[in-house]
Amino acid sequence: MSIALDDVSFAAGDTLIVDGVSLQAERGKVLGLLGPNGSGKSSLLRLICRLRKIRSGVIRLGDDDLASIARAALARRIALVEQQAETDTQMTVREVVRLGRTPHRGFLTPWLPQDEAAVAQALARVDMQERADRLWQTLSGGERQRVHLARALAQEPDELLLDEPTNHLDIQHQLDILSLVSRLGITCIVALHDLNLAAMFCDRLAVLEGGRIVAAGTPEAVLTEDLLERVFGVRAHVEKSPVHGRCNIQYRMG
């Protein structure tokens, strides 16, 4: 396994946010995190990045305990794409994406051709190369999200964590971004709200409710009509899509 959590808990003050989660992300596969608002998806991603400190349990990257990995080494291995990231600094798109190279460079390390190549490739992957010299502040919300993904890809991580990466994208770019993520060939954990997109692009799913894992497995095994009503409070019909072959959810009215 690339990422493994064993009985991991996290609390904010006296409030338990993540409660005894055990979960595995297979190397090179896409794991989708689903659950209602406040179920612990974002907190779980931040624990894996060590942006939050676990209260109990163990998180492993490969054979290594996450707590034993130096921060510099961790930054070269894991990239996080958050829901929103803002800056008042006047920066071009290219300059933002160049920040992804920071973990690979020392304080006095010169900018190298491989750095520029990684940035160019990342921009091309998210179709932002023609906007590379535009100011960040002039971009739409969807364009900014694509730049965040490009920054993460320029980091050349082994593990990529994404927190609602399609929130501000139109449907074409939602499909483009998740299709790209599914083809990267690196370990990805993606928190999503759209259940049909999760079914289309994730190899496995884990559903959180109240900080606990209540279901995990393939999309077909997890996204049952009973679970959708019990966890998400919606009545739905689930069937195999004749278009992409994955399960497809049709919500019932009333």
TrEMBL record:
Pfam families the record matches: ABC_tran
Domain of life of the native organism: Bacteria
Protein name per its UniProtKB record: Histidinol phosphatase
Keywords: ATP-binding, Nucleotide-binding, Transport
PROSITE patterns with a match to the protein in the record: ABC_TRANSPORTER_2 (PS50893)
Keyword check for ATP-binding: yes
Membership in a protein family: Belongs to the ABC transporter superfamily.
Organism taxonomic ancestry: Bacteria, Pseudomonadati, Pseudomonadota, Alphaproteobacteria, Hyphomicrobiales
Domain (ABC transporter) ranges: 3-235
GO MF terms, alphabetically ordered: ATP binding; ATP hydrolysis activity
Family annotation (Gene3D superfamilies): P-loop containing nucleotide triphosphate hydrolases
The keyword Transport is annotated on this UniProt entry: yes
